[in-house]
Task: inverse folding
């Protein structure tokens, strides 16, 4: 083998090792040390015309629970669209900071965790949740874009509800139909009686 072949072979081996290491890194899951990202799930329309802006979060850790008190690391701010797109820009105001958001973050994805009620004239405004964990600042931007409207189908698909739209609770949970439930629905007793016996 010539010197060129040895160099080329070394380059290929080093490149292969780096790619393999990168692939392993991409597949790693972490028990601790990762940030929490706030998430805007969408909005619900209330009968009086007001809205509920619904939020959740993703704690990227598999085990670590993180605490962030209300303050400069965990706050809400009202703004116009794009007003807080720059993560270096802060708009902390203690009078608006607390909107009922969590201060204790459980591991992994936590959907539909809390909601913030806004008036019917919310219009084009944005409500921005800023969260700083593990030295990283992340934001969730809430607006009334129509593609973010939450309905029962959205909730079912986002929470992985098996058999969404099925009234039989056993079928939803197992994929099999509960004979007692079907019997009760045909008039052979009350489904409530069957459930009540199990609950006692």
Result:
């Amino acid at each position: 083998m010539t010197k060129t072949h040895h160099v080329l072979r070394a380059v290929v081996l080093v490149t292969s090792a780096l790619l393999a290491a990168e692939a392993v890194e991409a597949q790693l899951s972490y028990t601790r040390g990762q940030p929490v990202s706030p998430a805007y799930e969408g909005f619900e329309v209330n009968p009086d015309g007001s809205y509920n802006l619904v939020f959740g979060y993703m704690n990227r850790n598999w085990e670590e629970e993180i605490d962030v008190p209300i303050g400069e690391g965990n706050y809400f701010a009202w703004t116009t669209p794009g007003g807080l797109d720059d993560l270096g820009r802060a708009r902390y105001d203690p009078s608006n900071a607390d909107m009922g958001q969590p201060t204790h973050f459980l591991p992994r994805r936590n959907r539909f965790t809390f909601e913030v009620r806004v008036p019917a004239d919310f219009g084009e405004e944005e409500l921005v949740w800023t969260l700083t964990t593990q030295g990283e600042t992340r934001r969730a931007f809430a607006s009334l874009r129509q593609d973010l409207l939450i309905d029962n189908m959205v909730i079912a698909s986002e929470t992985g509800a098996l058999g969404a739209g099925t009234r039989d609770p056993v079928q939803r949970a197992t994929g099999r139909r509960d004979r007692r439930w079907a019997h009760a629905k045909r008039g052979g007793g009350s489904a409530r009686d069957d459930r009540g016996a199990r609950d006692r």
Residues 162-199 form one domain.
